[in-house]
Design goal:
- Helix 1 runs antiparallel to helix 2, helix 2 packs parallel to helix 9 and helix 3 runs parallel beside helix 4.
- The termini are far apart.
- By secondary structure, the chain is of the alpha/beta class.
- Helix 7 links the parallel strand 5 and strand 6.
- The chain is about 40% helix and about 15% strand.
- It has a single domain, classed as 3-Layer(aba) Sandwich (Aspartate Aminotransferase, domain 2), CATH 3.40.640.10.
- Strands 1-7-6-5-4-2-3 form a 7-stranded mixed β-sheet, with helices on both faces.
- The chain has 10 helices and 7 strands.
- The site of pyridoxal-5'-phosphate has 16 residues, from helix 3 and helix 4.
């Protein structure tokens, strides 16, 4: 039997992903030096690295393919990626957010988003009746789900919440940092946006702080997030993008091994005589 780890069968585009992952050209760190046409225009469409850089284009295409999305944007951190989504909303917009979520984002929502006019409501997204009851048709613009949710690892039924949200035109964003696209591809379950702290599994080498948002479609909200990233300068540096792409080459192997280890630990402690609930 061939025991080599393989891309998850969940992931239909494994071959094209492998091709993308193996192509790992050197980082292009220059901020401004792009070829110009005689009329002064930039023939490649690239002008300044805060807007575009070929190095992070490679990592973005790879992650978009891994998630089954149409496009990806890298950010300076997972927090920068998450806050870019919220900051692309408008004052007065109502947002529903998983009650259990990474504490840093919860703190930012409470400290900044609320004072800037977002109407933030925390809800138990594992409870479908609560989600349905909390939605305010015409006012709720975003349902933010973290699953598995840090630190209690609550699991939300993505297909079910996406159905509830989409019935009333609410966009669904999923922080899928803990799952990675090896284990869950939220877009296949109806998510509109997938957010990652790429600092964690995606990079895997503990030498990069990075974030990412992947979209199911290139719509005006996506362009607004892009505009936010460019204007706010929340972009990842080219060298970090290069390191991240290097890290993603071993993503499947690492997630497989972590999952095996986690299962072995869980089995060891399941019913252990010295543990009580
Ligand atoms: C689930 C989750 N989302 C987002 C973040 C924030 O990411 P970063 O530390 O890259 O800003 C974290 C960080 O621990 C996290 O665990």
């Amino acid at each position: 039997m061939n025991s080599r780890p393989r891309p998850s069968p969940l992931n239909p585009s494994a071959r094209s992903i492998k091709r993308r992952a193996l192509s790992h050209p050197p980082a292009i760190p220059s901020s401004t030096i792009y070829e110009r046409s005689p009329d002064g225009s930039y023939r490649s469409g690239l002008a300044y690295t805060r807007a575009d850089n070929p190095t992070y284009d490679h990592a973005e295409r790879l992650l978009a393919a891994l998630e089954g999305g149409v496009a990806c944007m890298l950010f300076a951190s997972g927090s920068a990626a998450a806050t870019a989504v919220f900051q692309s909303l408008l004052p007065g917009d109502h947002v529903l957010v998983s009650r259990i979520l990474y504490w840093g984002i919860r703190k930012w929502l409470a400290e900044f988003a609320v004072s800037w006019g977002l109407d933030v409501e925390f809800v138990d997204t594992t409870n479908l009746a609560q989600v349905t009851a909390a939605i305010r048709p015409g006012r709720t613009r975003l349902l933010w789900v973290e699953t598995p949710a840090n630190p209690m690892w609550d699991i939300t039924d993505l297909a079910a919440v996406a159905e509830i949200a989409h019935a009333v035109d609410v966009r669904v964003a999923v922080d899928s940092t803990a799952a990675t696209p090896v284990l869950t591809r939220p877009i296949e379950f109806g998510a509109d946006l997938v957010v990652h702290s790429a600092t964690k599994y995606l990079n895997g080498h503990s030498d990069v702080l990075a974030g990412a948002v992947v979209t199911a479609r290139a719509d005006p909200f996506w362009e607004r997030i892009r505009s936010w990233r460019r204007s706010a300068g929340a972009v990842l540096g080219p060298f970090e993008a290069w390191l991240l792409q290097r890290g993603m080459r071993t993503l499947f192997v690492r997630v497989l091994r972590s999952s095996e280890s986690a299962l072995a630990i869980a089995r060891h402690f399941d019913g252990h005589t010295r543990l009580r609930e």
